[in-house]
Amino acid sequence: MKKTVSIFSSLALLAGVMAGCGPQDEAKPKENENEGKTEVSEDGMPPKPEKLVVWEDVKRGVALEPAIKAFEEKYGIKVEYKEVEMATKQRDQLRLDGPAGTGPDVITVPHDQIGQLVTEGLIREIQVDQSVLDTFTESSIAAQMYDGKLYGLPKAVETPVFIYNKKLMDKAPETMDELYQFSKEFTKGEQYGFLALWDNFYFAHGVIAGMGGYVFKNNNGALDRNDIGLNNEGAVKGTEYIQKWYKELFPKGIIGENGGSAMDGLFNEGKAASVMNGPWAFQGMRDAGIDIGVAPMPKLPNGEPVKTFMGVKGWHVSAFSKHPEWATKLIEFITNEENAKKRFELTREIPPVKSLINDPLIAEDEGAKAVAIQSQYAIPMPNIPEMAEVWGPMATALQLVANQKAEPKQALDEAVKTIKTNIETNHPSK
After folding, report:
1. Which candidate in 242, 261, 274, 378 could, as Cys together with 164 as Cys, close a disulfide (CB 3.0–4.6 Å)?
2. Is the pTM of this model over 0.85?
3. What's the protein's topology in the membrane (predicted)?
């Protein structure tokens, strides 16, 4: 378990690009005549490269192959791909291969690595038409922004949703108030109406943000590390709501390092009617023989949606690519509606393409539809390096609250104080 829809506006094929149409001696410009200039084709694109190289995640190449084939046929550019583990190896390998000139033109990484990649100068800002951006959900595009600039296009999303055992619960409740009443009646002995890992900030964020808290203030796509809203009035109310569930309805066994496996065990043994978990858990539940139902999270008591954290996998152009315009054209193409749909068919990765949310392929897949809908309310995990300082202090605060050892305001004040100190220590202002 871990933290953790595109309409492509086609350009006309390049025409009349003159490459090697005469002896090199005759084509050679006068000394310094074209220094600093870039040759541009009729439609504003540079000449086509012979080849582009893409790094794809492991066991995902099957979804990239049909998109590559269509791109090659359309533009006449050879595309090669290599499978490289996405979470850490692509970033680490690009640090070496990029400067050496042996790296790719396009990589794929989780969006929360974007800030570090930009800071290190490993990926570049991209420029795309508004029609391309409008293809995707706003939150998935927000995840590709850093300091107000766009650094990629999204290919897949994941976010926690509401999962229930159809044998124990007829349908998903619309509100958390309904779920609370159900749980009060259902919870007895070793049976629980609802479980969530709210001592883990990844999951607790949905409640805290839904009540008005926030990690870093978002100023038009730029996150302000100095404006932390994790102990404001809304964050305190959200944490008080979390405390209520632990005090009245949650078992003590789902707190701490082993909480996830304990919660999974209770659900897979038919002892919990419902849980908050992500799409990564679906298969294990089905393998355990549970007939699961999946829905977006019920609305909070204040009428707001649970604003879960969202993880977004994206495509990005290497800062070392010699063909950034065509690399950008490639990621526009492989994320368009047709190719996003094909990727879902082949990998079950859920595309944040708006037009696909109601497509029968996704609409008839209960889990995929729930994730697609919930992702519209979700907030991308902050992708600035300072986010690394948030997880530990917030986990400490939430576990103190869950164990009834501290009141929410006190615990959150201390967490924010620690976060700010760690940011100043480990990420000194430039």
Report:
1. 274
2. no
3. Lipid-anchor
